[in-house]
From TrEMBL, chains A, B, C, D, E, F:
InterPro entries: Agmatinase-rel, Ureohydrolase, Ureohydrolase_dom_sf, Ureohydrolase_Mn_BS. GO terms for biological process: putrescine biosynthetic process from arginine, via agmatine. Its EC number is 3.5.3.11. This is Agmatinase. Mn(2+) binds at H130, D154, H156, D158, D246, D248. Keywords: Hydrolase, Manganese, Metal-binding. NCBIfam families: agmatinase (TIGR01230). The keyword Hydrolase applies.
Length: 319, 319, 319, 319, 319, 319
């Protein structure tokens, strides 16, 4: 049971639109705060979009998701879980990342996350663009000493080869890089939701060469989310795995506020069921990325993102 | 057959964006108008959101729904009904409700609706927040002398205990209050679409203790709207029943303009089929509530709400 | 194989948000450009909404669709097609159409399209309101000397009788006019997606009298898009057919930016599958109409429209 | 003193966002209503934009202005006037104008206004695009038998020659046409606020040839609104004059919701002072045109337009 | 000199869009925090709009203003002040105010502010609607034992008589109530910026009867802000005074996000100069109210409000 | 006189919303196009915001400005100029700039502009963030062999020291860098419009140390734009000078669509007069930067930006 210190105030005591907005209304703990030692799961933001090839704005994601997440209440009605009571959670703040220098930005994030992981806190990262995920994977890999599985819910594989000269890392290739660096185990990796136009088949080819399972959206809709997620569970197995959720997995009618939307995606209900289906796996870290508030005039994407964050949290909570 | 006085002008005679916007382009009849005696079904607005716990704005609902409803044409293509020809309908105006005094506001609404019901007019109320529904239930109960059934399409049960001290009525507990006051018959009450996070299980527990049937969204999607609505019809039976439609029943991708959206809901098609499935029941009154125009920048929620209003009308029309 | 001149630049060479926006980043060829002789399929815009009975703005459609279409990449991930490599495509520009004079506007469009067709270019027209389609049908009929089939994906039949006195052509009756003028073969015509309210049954009656197959949305959802599109293929057969896609076919949650939205429509996934199902037919021309940017604040409708345009292109590409 | 029937309800009795929205919350009187005989000043809408050369949408102006105008209270704080008490005002509704046929649309408007003028009602027209003004000028000229003065507040002269072939009337030439038809007396005509780019000097040349005084914005800002309006009063004199206010007179920061905005215009304060400066003239009719709600996402233009309408009303009220 | 603990992080160390958003990036101190004893000036929010007669939404003001205020840097370029270095400032959080019960909400706010004042912290309140100001005035009056002066920058006097039956306090009468309760000294009260329509002259009459100086906007523009503010300084004198800034003081082109905008107001430059002109007075407390985020789609009003908050802070800083 | 090839089509021949949108509807000439040799003034875009410290989005500026600029007509009404007839202008396209690699991006831009300058084309650059200006200054300096004057209209000096570690160039220091590199002559440099909060006085100190004249907004409003611009002309003198216009010079009520708005700025009228006042100087190049379409929902900033571009063009045109 959580210490009451770690329990968010109820909307019945302080209206949900009131108060300083931390993730889920959890206590904010700076790196020096001694109570960090008690934290089991930590939310933190990587407010950075310096690897974005198309429409920028994901640097504003953590701010918008903190705001929207204050609407979340204590209990998951569908599963009956009360995750804040089941484990001690906190908001660990944002990493200072230079918007104009990729190397420095990634370095700062890796150092911060290494500290988090070192303290025994499971990371729940809020992006930022998808290259941010690479920093979490690196920190987890370094701490664990071995590669782990990956479940990716996304409309893109992010296995693209580098494009644009010079700097080779973009938000289109974190997982290609992660495979190359040996961070993730490709044969225990599954990617779900791919669709839209492509430059060529190079990303799929790369994935297939390495044994990654890629589920295109047509297969997803044909078979239904239940069978697809059963297969995903089987691929990942009981060993440790990371869960990455790109908001553009969901159809842009539901989530317009993202940089590279692709039409023809799942509904919010389907997306949430996909996350819930992963309950019981050994999820060592997770993230929600690519929420871009400048393209989300009604705030609906942030609200959906906050709802997904809560489901990610519940999947990581003790049974 | 309706008197031509009660037939809305066609868009072929006056473009639908033209003219003073009344509900469905029906004649507006003030309380003193003698033609009120001929009315069988009356639209009216309760422009009030003084019981809203989260984002306000539903006070602007009747205005936006009158505007959008001028786009509705004469015939329901799916059912073949022409409701304005089948019964004499009118716009009865809005009730003057103090935005700063709940007791006075509710009292005025109850008095107005009592007058409507007394004239033999079936009420089709346009909110306003969900506490507005309580005033219709009270007026109908007073006039009929006995409790009636209820079908609620909503993402919340609105059976919550009072929250916030002092004033105990909020838009989160009209139906708890209605059960307590004996306005509705809980064993003939069915609530469909519940989802999202919860403070606890108190609302469900209350409902179940009183015999209310609650269909969560997971069950709704598992079984499909057909079987669920068949069960709803069976629960309500042939005795009188009230139908309350909270726009947040529908997924926020379709209906962003509401105060407390919950992701993972039905599509507009599914929602409309749910209403249509109730044809033939003895619907003594209905409402559409919680449309909040300030959160509806594109006007899509108002347009969807107007479409739902038309379906509510058709369900109340003679076969 | 296309001449490299006709291959759009990749986003890897020039970011997709950069450069002068032509349709799909194809070369723009004016009527006098000699390279028009090499073109097999030509995009062009009819920026005109002078026949719109409700909310105007479709005149701005071609501009917004050019902009959004620069996001399209080379390959259709679902089908594996690379249409720009398979046939030589170009942007032929917009027709100068008077916004205040219907006769002149239609005449200019017909003359322009006649020229396009004469050059052996298959037309892919971007509207504009739905009356624009009539000009393409007239030009194709004149060039071919016989009527052809029609597949219409739309929420309306556009078989309405003239409404408003005087000028009889509106965006509500291009296909009634096309039947009357003998442009299309009604027995090889299928219309899919009809829904919403109606003035009366006159449009359906007209269609049925002439042998047109009309699939209402309820049937579409009951049977699923697969069986419905199989039937559509059978109706159209192997003879030449025209394909017209009104963006209001898709539910307004996905496509709010249109003049006369009707709730309860298909998702973007379903809509795209409907187009793909037509592969292999003899499509002699196609269009996407009724995108109205002033009602599309987030640009999502334009992006969905551009995605549909790409699918139309793929259906018209060699197998 | 007005009959209480003609006094709008106070916001203290019915909140201003409540009730069926008529212009200024005045009673709506259809053409057949016998109380029209008592009306001294009549608001009515011309919901039409069929002569718009650029961005359409002004057809939605009357609807939006009725909505916004319900915010207006009884008294002009600056002048102390209570116009609704000083003369009997009413909402006469909208004219049915075909969106697709200019001749019919203008004919209907002229017939309607002729009827209004015949009943001795001074017209206060709400557009619609600027060609709508021509119909008021024609009706007034026909009734009076002689030309009258004109004050135009606008960023354009609307003295342009016809452009686009065929139909020669556009919203760019109502006043050229009015001069040609002898409706207005050019030597008693003053146009204020002209700015932006031009095709050529033909409109100015035409105006100057006929003796029209044109005040460009540079002169307006140099001299200040006081001296400019003093000159305008002197030009118009004590004989009858018409007052036309195009919302694009005001800078687009204040009034973005219009079809052809021109940057560098007056503030709302300056614009209102310009209207007030005309008090005491013999204003026989007035209008507010070119409010285009699709380009007014925040509704600020409609609210400013409603405020201008109230000032126009006050200028037309007895001293 | 401030303790470094009270110095906001620079954007050069943590980008301004990053981190948990407190007012001005100051430390958040809960009521129990011992460091509150060191605070000299405290920001806090009253997230409440339960007294709003027109468009609601000001309850969301503190959230939006915290967000926007993270853009403020250390130094006032115009005055050279560095207020965070000159006095120890903090974010004291929001008061829990029931959205449905006015008595409880006001009582909670008064108790909270009494505690703030008791600790010797000068209050800088962020609303909320204008009735929130009454709670600050009451707390200051109780602590000081005598009435104080008032400077109000607003488009309304908020001296209106109660309207709507029952509950008599609304956001239209805080200062009438404050005069009645003896909180403020009317002869040392000045109100600047009044404009728009009025129900009658009752508010002005009340003010004038009590000796309040009211400067209408016409006088403001005629004389210029310099002379007007000189007079305001003279009226208030050197004795203690409270400064209340309603965002609707500024023209809605600059500040659309408010509940009751009035056209024809000052620019942001003029408004800021008005605040700066008060430097050197004995300002015992201040507020910024009526920012309503639902009507501020671009966030510009919140940004302007945050800029005004900084100017209020500078006026309250030691010279 | 221009060759007709270089004259944009009139809106009377092709409505201004029609056609492929190039800058000002000028012909687009790729680097290889032989007609580039005839060009005297070239528009081109630098679609890049990789040096933005706050809100990104300026990479989308050239696209939005091309779109808006199609509304510009042939003649400057205020000055009588017809710049397209006076010199041969063209749209030279956008530079391919990597969004993720600053060095490569700047390098590509410099190479492109060097080519433009080499062809004798005067550059009119459309950003992009303000660091883009550095590439133009470098290319011009290299071609000319000596430093030139600078007029900057902006709310910031962009003389800030590097902030964020690593990469030292940001959009906050192009002119510091330009001074350091000897590109501009500081004693012939004038910066106008500075306001808002600051980190410290380091930027002003740097400027003053080098002899740059900085006019803060308070001085601008006190003296008026006329005297200020007279002084600017005197500082720059008759020798060559560059003119850089940051859209955030103008108040955010007029230009909300920018990354770092500062309240309290000039109106659009005043801003345009500032540009016009520079006529007759030897302007060797100019730019408009920092238009950020994601923060410009109504498109008003792009339209204002296009109007400013036209004024920049007129200032560069032969007398």
């Amino acid at each position: 049971m959580s210490d009451p210190f770690f329990i968010p105030p109820s909307g019945a005591d302080l209206p949900r639109y009131a108060g300083v907005p931390t993730f889920m209304r959890l206590p904010y703990l700076s790196p020096e705060d001694p109570r960090r030692a008690e934290v089991e799961l930590g939310f933190f933001g990587l407010p950075w979009d310096g690897a974005t090839s198309n429409r920028p704005g994901a640097r504003h994601g953590p701010r918008a998701l903190r705001d929207a997440s204050t609407m979340i209440r204590a209990m998951n009605r569908a599963t009956g879980q009360t995750p804040f009571a089941a484990m001690q959670c906190a908001d660990l703040g944002d990493v200072a990342m230079s918007p104009v220098d990729q190397d420095e930005a990634l370095g700062n994030a890796e150092a911060f996350i290494a500290g988090v992981v070192e303290q025994g806190i499971r990371p729940l990262m809020v992006g930022g663009d998808h290259l941010c995920t690479l920093t979490v994977l690196r920190a987890l890999r370094a701490a664990r000493g071995e590669a782990f599985g990956l479940i990716l819910l996304d409309s893109h594989t992010d296995l693209y080869p580098p494009y644009f000269g010079g700097q080779t890392l973009t938000h289109g290739n974190p997982f290609r890089q992660a495979v190359t660096e040996g961070l993730i185990a490709p044969e225990r990796t599954v990617m779900i939701g791919m669709r839209g136009t492509a430059y060529d088949t190079e990303d799929f080819d790369f994935g297939h060469r390495h044994g990654i399972r890629i589920v295109q959206i047509e297969e997803f809709f044909d078979r239904g989310f239940g069978p697809v997620m059963d297969e995903a569970r089987a691929i990942v197995g009981t060993a440790p795995a990371y869960l990455s959720f790109d908001i553009d997995f969901i159809d842009p009618a539901y989530a317009p506020g993202t940089g590279t939307p692709e039409v023809g995606g799942p509904t919010s209900f389907q997306a949430i069921q996909c996350v819930r289906a992963l309950r019981g796996l050994d999820i060592i870290g997770a993230d929600l990325v690519e929420v871009s508030p400048p393209f989300d005039p009604s705030g609906g994407t942030a609200w959906l993102g906050a709802s997904v964050l809560f489901e990610l949290l519940c999947v990581m909570a003790p049974a």
